[in-house]
Amino acid sequence: MQHKIITTEDGSHTLFVPELNEHYHSVNGAIQESKHVFIDTGFKYFLEKNINQDDQKSINILEIGFGTGLNAFLTLIESQKLNVNVFYQSVELYPVSIKEAEKLNYFELINQSEQKKFKQQTNLSESEHFKVIDKTLFMKLHTTPWERAVDILPEFTLLKQKFDFSKCEKIRADRLFNLIYFDAFAPDKQPEMWTEDIFGKIYSLSDADAVFTTYCAKGVVRRMLQSAGFKMERLPGPPGKREILRGSKLLIFDTE
């Protein structure tokens, strides 16, 4: 697919796909959308809900739609701050080119934001606060080979798989996942990615404590996820979007 780099309202880039008339992220702000939907509503929520301070912190994440690598990069940053070991498995049919990834401004904007936070948190040493804010790590997410698990950092392993997830029977996983980032293109643009079969497959790959999060809040999507076995809730969305969806895996099947 052909892409055009677009600057969103928070200054961060997204990619526009003329073929689908669709953006990879919200035009109201790419970084703030990813932080809200996947980091705050997903990653941090899971840790607060399921992991005690004395526990060894580790989490297996399945992402549908690697895209620009923004969700993975933000997760990498947060995992370092919170001392969490992450196995991050991501599926993408149309990888962004290395040249396109190099032009994205996520590192610059996130680095500026982290510098501002550092000045407000003087109890943190500079080495502690910036140990992961490095553009080479963002690019490593894109340059590592597909179909092989690679340690981006000792505490963060990435496995990228290139195939069409609408044919979800092709996915192979050697573990169950605690957290699912569902970031496919919108249902009206890519309806084959939003089906009962796909959500059922994701449910079967989910651990007992699993959390599912997506930017989409359509009623038909919520009902399919409920039918798959997730207890769903609507939550406030990021700027420009009223609601998003989050689900928790039910051990006792209940679609109410």
Q: What is the gist of this entry?
A:
The chain is an alpha/beta fold.
Keywords:
256 residues, single chain, three-stranded antiparallel sheet, globular, 11 strands, alpha/beta, eight-stranded mixed sheet
Notes on the protein architecture:
The chain has 256 residues and is an alpha/beta fold. 34% of the residues lie in helices and 25% in strands. An eight-stranded mixed sheet has the order 6-7-5-4-8-9-11-10, with helices on both faces.
Structural class: alpha/beta
- Report the biggest beta sheet as strand number plus sense, adding barrel if it closes: 8 strands, mixed
The average pLDDT value, as a whole number, equals 90
Total strands: the figure is 11
Uncertain regions spanning at least 5 consecutive residues: none
Q: Provide the helix percentage.
A: 25-40%
End-to-end separation in angstroms reads 40 Å
Shape: globular
- Number of DSSP helices? 8
Strand order of the largest sheet: 6-7-5-4-8-9-11-10
| Oligomeric category | single chain
Calculate Rg over CA atoms: 17 Å
Tell me the strand percentage band: 25-35%
In N-to-C order, the SSE pattern is EEEHEHEHHHHEEEHEHEE
